[in-house]
Amino acid sequence: MKKDYYALKNAKAADNDFGEPAFVKENSIESILSQNGLPVGLLPSSVESYTLSDDGQFSVTLLKACYAHFDYDVYYAKTITRKLSYGAISSVTGVQAKEAFLWLFVTGIHIDESNSSSIYFEVGPFSRGLLIAQFETAPVCKAKVVSDLSALA
Question: Is residue 151 part of a domain?
């Protein structure tokens, strides 16, 4: 059974870079992530709606495609799909991370139970661990890549 959740009902607005509200609801995407042992900041604050099936198939629609920055620049397509299980997300589509000058697809995310301070991202052929503290809040969606290139000058 597929459940549709539209964040336009019973919602409160949050700011984003597009001048449009990002909506949060009681059954928000943040609460779904948290209930599955994942940090709430894995998705940007501009989630418009999402669907979640009983088998963990998951689809998220953002207001617009956007960028965020953690230790790496991250691109989020307007639609992101994945399979959700406790402490892990697999079969990810619609998310890319910039490694050097290449944009690589993020295909999976998991928490290592032996190291709860890190979260691991499968990016291309690599698995990268990042401090989970970076993902405590949903990042604000940006229309452009947000890394600071002024350091190169």
Answer: no
Answer yes or no: are the C-beta atoms of 111 and 120 closer than 8 Å. Answer: yes
Q: Which residue has the tokens 């995310």?
A: 109
In the beta sheet, which residues pair with residue 106? 123
DSSP, residue by residue, 21-75: PEEE-TT-HHHHHHHTT--GGGS-TTEEEEEEETTSEEEEEESS-EEEESSSEEE
Domain that holds residue 69: 2-145
**Total-model pTM:** 0.77
> Does residue 153 form part of some domain?
no
pLDDT, tens digit (0-9, with 9 covering 90-100), for 82-114: 999 999 999 999 999 998 888 999 999 999 878
Query: Do residues 76 and 103 make contact, with C-beta atoms less than 8 angstroms apart?
Result: no
Cα distance between residue 80 and residue 23, in whole Å: 17
Tell me if 43 is assigned to some domain: yes
Residues of the chain with pLDDT under 50: 1-25, 149-153
